Amino acid sequence: MIYCGIDWAERTHDVALVDDTGQLLAKRHITDDAVGYRILLNLLAEYGDTEECPIPVAIETSRGLLVAVLRTGKRKVFAINPMAAARYRDRHSVSRKKSDPGDALVLANILRTDMHAHRPLPADSDLARAIAVLARAQQDATWNRQQLANQLRSLLREYYPSALAAFETWRNGLCRPEARELLKAAPTPARAARLTRTQIAAALKRAGRQRGIDAEAERLREAFRADWAHQPPLVEDALGKQMLALLIQLDAACTAADDLAEAVEDAFPQHPDAEVITSFPGLGVQLGARVLAEIGDDRTRFADARGLKAYAGASPITRASGKKSSITRRWVKNDRLNHAGYLWAFASLRASPGAMAHYRRRRDEHSDWHASAQRNLFNRMIGQLYHCLKHRAMFDEQTAFPTALAAAA
């Protein structure tokens, strides 16, 4: 067999081909454009790359146009972790020398010696990969929105506590359009205290509020006119300008999160696995799309449910050496799937009586902390999801969490 290793960079890439004995057959330095990709494909074809027997390729990334070109057909592309590649480099040389052509040779030799220990990129469908792009982007936008909201809240605490008190009763607080519209109309507490009921009601209407406008305007007016401490006028005006600049970023983040959420709602229901995923308690369109984005729809990706649990960071890990042994949580995992799993387990507590009973049993009988009990619940739920996706079955409460009488029978 022939093995290919590619050390990728922003503008150029180094390619190395080796045979079964580790002999270097060819090396190339290609550019990151259509001409360079054509040179790479011609080089692979020259050494026997065909549709029936493609040459496997190792590269230190799983994204980009180069990877998309390599994944055409049945070719296996292995995304090698850069830390793992650095350890392999020490096997060939202890002088710590490093070069791009040498790294390409190391990657090719990784496949030659240990291809069985690495997994190729999953053969997900184009729809699943598109949903993954949208779900991850929406997740990033949500995190960015929350980060900006936290920054804005910290800034308001320095000079504008009346705004925080006025928006405290609203869900999502500063991320709501009403809060952002009022902050635009009154960037300082002095200006907020001069707002009339009509001006506040107009701001609420511009934000899209339709009910209870008069009562809410009266409540906000009283909160703005209450007795609060103030910064000096010049400092207060400067902080107001800083707040408006931060508010522009928060507006953009809120718009991006909402637009991407709509895109996910349009794309996710089109996937065949969407019906099975959303049949589970606690999984809606957004959270279900995040789960699908990380596990994909390639059923050969995980050999069994244990592999998926370890990938999600739901199952514990054992560390044993000599007389010492400990069981701890996993730190090396898919962080996006693990975060979605925490939200999934938390939401399922109210949606599923069996999930709540399992959680209470972990807390009472096993003395688990809250996070540990939820992780154990997530471990069980994702194992059930693996089974349902494999057999195209919907979630069944009685099968997933059988009662004591049914279990005894």
How would you describe what is shown here?
- The chain is an alpha/beta fold and 409 residues long.
- Helix content is 59%, strand content 9%.
- It has helices at residues 34-46, 65-70, 82-92, 100-114, 126-159, 161-167, 177-185, 189-193, 197-206, 213-224, 233-267, 274-278, 285-295, 305-312, 335-351, 353-364, 370-391, 397-400, 404-408, and strands at 3-7, 12-18, 24-31, 57-59, 77-79, 317-321, 324-328.
- β6 and β7 form a beta hairpin.
- α6 runs antiparallel to α10 (213-224).
- It is globular and about 80 Å long.
- The model is unreliable at 405-409 (pLDDT under 50).
Helix content: 55-70%
N- to C-terminal distance: 55 Å
Radius of gyration over alpha carbons?
28 Å
Based on secondary structure, the structural category is alpha/beta
Count helical runs: 19
Give short descriptive properties of this protein.
single chain; 409 residues; alpha/beta; five-stranded mixed β-sheet; two-stranded antiparallel ribbon; 59% helix; disordered C terminus
